[in-house]
Amino acid sequence: MIAYIKGILTNIQDESLILDVHGVGYELICANPFAFQSKLNEEVLINTYQYVREDTLVLYGFKNEDEKYLFKKLISVSGIGPKGALAILASVDIPGFVSAVEREDDKFLTSFPGVGKKTARQIILDLKGKLVMELSISMDQNQDNTPSTDHYNTFAIADAQEALKALGYMDREIKAVIPKLQAMDIQNTDEIIKNALALLMKK
């Protein structure tokens, strides 16, 4: 298995990165390739997972080990494939996701693309108690069960993405500004859309 790849980030596409390693270009499928925008044309080390099936050989890339571990756990859940796992990772706050699994929060889990009530219950059944010990996150045992502002920001950004698509913007354009929108930590969908439009108009 290929655990990581170190090379020059030469290209960022809608769903993948291209890394040049001594003249060989490796394509890595990512949840949000544009999160690596600041590293374009620089040497980077990207954690990878090699997905092998009878007719499939794909390399998936991740920002860190926690994201990679969660991806592996998600694809072990019945009903979730690599595409579904990436859709979750594209907007997930990992501590929030783990907390939701631990408290069996169906409503939170069904907010992710492609996750219905049945799949949410399967996630809880398969992963409860298995994520906290492995992921390098700090889970406050005394925290209440209400989603943090980070979770609301995730939902609001997802809503804003759909609105921007309806306005005619392409996925590539929208994904390119998402990291900046997340950094703004705005909770209101209308405000996120307003800021997104300002960023898109600068391009």
From TrEMBL:
Give a GO biological-process term.
DNA repair
Ranges for the region named Domain III are: 147-203
Chief subcellular location:
cytoplasm
Q: Where is the Helix-hairpin-helix DNA-binding motif class domain?
A: 72-91, 107-126
Alphabetical GO CC annotations of the entry are: cytoplasm; Holliday junction helicase complex; Holliday junction resolvase complex
Query: Which keywords fit this entry according to its UniProt record?
Result: Cytoplasm, DNA damage, DNA recombination, DNA repair, DNA-binding
Q: Which Pfam families match?
A: HHH_5, RuvA_C, RuvA_N
User: Where is the protein localized?
Assistant: Cytoplasm
Keyword tRNA processing in annotation: no
Keyword Lipoprotein applies: no
InterPro entries xref list: DNA_helicase_Holl-junc_RuvA_I (IPR013849), Hlx-hairpin-Hlx_DNA-bd_motif (IPR003583), NA-bd_OB-fold (IPR012340), RuvA (IPR000085), RuvA_2-like (IPR010994), RuvA_C (IPR011114), RuvA_C_sf (IPR036267)
Output the superkingdom of the source species.
Answer: Bacteria
User: What is an example of a GO molecular function annotated in this UniProt entry?
Assistant: four-way junction DNA binding
Q: Which family does it belong to?
A: Belongs to the RuvA family.
Task: Return the domain comment text from this UniProt entry.
Answer: Has three domains with a flexible linker between the domains II and III and assumes an 'L' shape. Domain III is highly mobile and contacts RuvB.
> What does this protein do, in the record's words?
The RuvA-RuvB-RuvC complex processes Holliday junction (HJ) DNA during genetic recombination and DNA repair, while the RuvA-RuvB complex plays an important role in the rescue of blocked DNA replication forks via replication fork reversal (RFR). RuvA specifically binds to HJ cruciform DNA, conferring on it an open structure. The RuvB hexamer acts as an ATP-dependent pump, pulling dsDNA into and through the RuvAB complex. HJ branch migration allows RuvC to scan DNA until it finds its consensus sequence, where it cleaves and resolves the cruciform DNA.
Q: How does it assemble?
A: Homotetramer. Forms an RuvA(8)-RuvB(12)-Holliday junction (HJ) complex. HJ DNA is sandwiched between 2 RuvA tetramers; dsDNA enters through RuvA and exits via RuvB. An RuvB hexamer assembles on each DNA strand where it exits the tetramer. Each RuvB hexamer is contacted by two RuvA subunits (via domain III) on 2 adjacent RuvB subunits; this complex drives branch migration. In the full resolvosome a probable DNA-RuvA(4)-RuvB(12)-RuvC(2) complex forms which resolves the HJ.
Q: What is this protein called?
A: Holliday junction branch migration complex subunit RuvA
Give the organism, scientific name: Oceanobacillus arenosus
